[in-house]
Amino acid sequence: MPQYPCTITECPRISRALCHCCQNNYCIEHLRDHNDTYLSQLYELTNQINKLSEYFRGQHRLQLDQWRQESHQAIDSYYEK
Question: How many distinct structural domains can be found in the chain?
Answer without folding.
Answer: 1
